[in-house]
Amino acid sequence: MKVVLVRHGETEGNSKGLYEGKKEVSINENGRNQSKKLGNLLKDYKFSKVYCSPQKRCKETLDIIIETLDFKPESIEYKEKLKEIDFGLWEGLSYKEIEKVFPRQWEEFIKDYKEFSFPEGESFIDFYERATKILDFLDDGSYLILTHGGVIRAVLSKLLGSGIEGFYSIKPKQGAFSEINYYKDFIEIEYINKD
């Protein structure tokens, strides 16, 4: 089985280092250019199924990629499980702003993110379990999964066997893809952050 994990193109918030989870935002001009480049990089792939986050930035990225690739509409499925984590009150803030406005919670997050719940948002463990459930939908075949940085981190850490502890070991770039060949007893990493 082949799994190609694509992170959506850059948004204005991404370019400014802001937390964007459930917030609905569009990709910016750079994100559109990244998406066109992704389409060219992926044009020779044949995917049996495409799973995409229903969030606007992912749909926009996919629409641009589709212009290059030959997808049938029935091969595309939008999955709620692929949405980015709900950062709650941290949505739209930078690291520095969060540290200033929520110093205690920021310290808790840095100390043990695995046990953390975002204020008025999602718990980290709930997000991890939700995001990695996409693997239950995969069997033999070739899959394109277009989603968010957090979801890609969760899926890769699960596939690599490091679990939630390895979540921050990989930093997916906007407008890039990672390719994994997944066999019954082992996985083979073809690319991480190809762009």
TrEMBL record:
Keyword field contains Transferase: no
EC number(s) from the headed UniProt entry: 3.1.3.73
Pfam families reported in the protein's UniProt record: His_Phos_1
SMART domains reported in the protein's UniProt record: PGAM (SM00855)
Binding site for substrate: R7, H8, G9, E10, T11, E12, G13, N14, R57
Biological-process GO terms, alphabetical: cobalamin biosynthetic process; negative regulation of glycolytic process; regulation of pentose-phosphate shunt
Any one of the GO CC terms: cytosol
CDD domains per record: HP_PGM_like
Catalytic residues, chain numbering: H8 (tele-phosphohistidine intermediate), E84 (proton donor/acceptor)
This protein's UniProt keywords: Hydrolase
Gene3D superfamilies for this protein: Phosphoglycerate mutase-like
GO MF entry, a single one: fructose-2,6-bisphosphate 2-phosphatase activity
Record-linked InterPro entries: His_Pase_superF_clade-1, His_PPase_superfam, PG/BPGM_mutase_AS, Phosphoglycerate_Mutase, Ribazole_CobC
Name this protein carries in UniProt: Alpha-ribazole phosphatase
Organism of origin: Clostridium intestinale URNW
